[in-house]
Write a structure and sequence with these properties.
By secondary structure, the protein is α/β, with parallel strands linked by helices. The chain folds into two domains: 2-152, no CATH class; 163-310, no CATH class. The protein has helices spanning 2-6, 9-23, 29-43, 48-60, 71-83, 100-122, 130-145, 147-152, 155-162, 168-180, 196-201, 213-216, 222-236, 259-266; strands at residues 187-191, 204-205, 240-245, 272-281, 284-290, 304-310. It has a six-stranded mixed β-sheet with strand order 2-1-3-6-4-5. Helix 4 crosses helix 6 and helix 5 (71-83) packs antiparallel against helix 6. The longest helix has 23 residues, at 100-122. It starts with a helix and ends with a strand.
Length: 313
């Protein structure tokens, strides 16, 4: 009712019902298990033992009478957390972040139950706490395995190493340039899926489409979304346009509609002047070129960001 009163019910219904229904129907059930196990391998690569301890908790909660009253709650929480990774059967790595609280609880249950079962079977001794010490060793091994990212390299270096091809570090520099060279009320359009540029530059978007992934997807609304994004940008007349020259920011597929890209290259780009380029060279430092020299930059084999400013009539 609030959204209807605000005049945006149509948009609400489109994104949460119509488009969402298309989004979750791409991956067939026959591919779900393959995608799941591929993601599990990636997620657990540097902490396999920790995840195995959590998995053991699923079994141990049934053998410890202290957990009789909380058993269903623990398992229900674990199941609900797992289900949050399943919509669409994409199983992207970051979806598994929602499993961490449940995994931590189950790991704690496994260690506690193992100590109690050992004590009941063998009796009290100086070794009855060995599951705790074993778990501490597992934690230590996990910390050692991840020491490079956690302790040795800088956040920027870690970002370049983990997210090769994604202009996260470059977005900070470009956003700072936009913030320094525009008024607070200036509008910005990002052609690509890098909404952090809006946030970091503290400037409003010229369009509601802050991601271009849906516009390239094999779904019936893609062309409609592209036309809407074009209309919104032309109407808002942004002062800056940032074009993201990175395949990972578009995820074009065979058969993707190219109307938005053609509109920019063949038509709307003529209203702007190239004033900055962030040349990516993953995983190494990027090169930044500003002002008139930016026009001399040719191909961007490693990807990058191109900053355009509205030309003065």
């Amino acid at each position: 009712m609030i959204l209807w009163r605000a005049g945006v019910f149509e948009q609400f219904w489109f994104w949460t019902i119509r488009y969402a229904n298309e989004y979750i129907s791409w991956v067939p059930m026959t591919q779900a298990s393959q995608k799941f196990f591929e993601s599990v391998a990636d997620v657990t690569e540097r902490s396999t033992l920790l995840w195995l301890v959590a998995a053991a908790g699923l079994m141990f909660v049934w053998f410890d009478n202290r957990m009789r009253e909380t058993r269903l709650s623990l398992l229900g929480f674990g199941l609900a957390s797992f289900l949050t990774t399943c919509p669409g059967f994409f199983f992207r790595d970051h979806y598994f972040l929602l499993l961490l609280p449940a995994a931590a609880l189950l790991a704690g249950c496994a260690v506690s139950a193992a100590c109690r079962l050992w004590r009941n079977k063998i009796g009290a001794s100086r070794f009855d706490a060995w599951p705790k010490w074993a778990y501490l060793m597992v934690l230590a091994m996990s910390i050692f395995e991840n020491r490079d990212v956690w302790f040795e390299i800088t956040p920027r270096q870690a970002t370049r190493e983990i997210y090769r091809g994604s202009p996260f570090v470059e977005s900070e520099v470009v956003a700072e340039f936009i913030r320094t060279n525009s008024a607070p009320h200036a509008r910005v359009a990002v052609l690509g899926s890098e909404p952090q540029i809006y946030f970091l530059s503290r400037r409003h978007s010229a369009t509601g489409h802050i991601y271009t992934y849906p516009l390239m997807e094999p779904q019936p609304f893609a062309s409609q979304m592209q036309r809407e994004m074009i209309r919104e940008i032309e109407s808002a007349e942004p002062e800056f346009v940032v074009f993201v020259a990175s395949p990972l920011s578009w995820l074009q597929q065979p058969g993707s509609d190219s109307s938005l890209l053609n509109w920019w290259v063949q038509n709307y780009q003529t209203n702007f002047t190239l004033v900055g380029v962030a040349v990516m060279n993953p995983p190494h430092e990027s090169r930044y070129v500003w002002g008139g020299e930016a026009a001399s930059i040719g191909e961007l084999p490693g990807g990058g960001l191109l900053v355009f400013k509205k030309s003065v009539p």
